[in-house]
Amino acid sequence: MAIGVWISLALYFVLMIAIGFYAWRKSTASSEEYMLGGRNLPPSVAALSAGASDMSGWLLLGLPGALFASGLVQAWIGIGLLVGALVNWIVVAPRLREQTERYDNSLTIPQFLACRFPSRAFALRTVSAIIVVVFFAVYTASGLVAGGKLFSSAFSGLISVGGVSDYSVGIWLTLGIVLTYTVIGGFLAVSLTDFVQGCIMMIALVLMPVVVLFGSGGGGLSQASETLSTVDPNFLSWTHGLTVVGFLSAVTWGLGYFGQPHIIVRFMAVRSVNEVSTARNIGMSWMAISLIGAICLGVFGRAYAVRNGLDIKDAETIFIVLADLLFHPLITGFLYAALLAAIMSTISSQLLVSSSSLTEDFYRLFLHKEASEQESVLIGRISVLLVGIAAAIIAGNPDSKVLGLVSHAWAGFGAAFGPLIILSLTWARMSGTGAVAGLVVGAVTVIVWIQLGWNSSFMGGPGVYEILPGFVASWLAIYLVSLATQSTGEFRAINT
Question: Ion transport as a keyword (predicted)?
Answer without folding.
Answer: yes
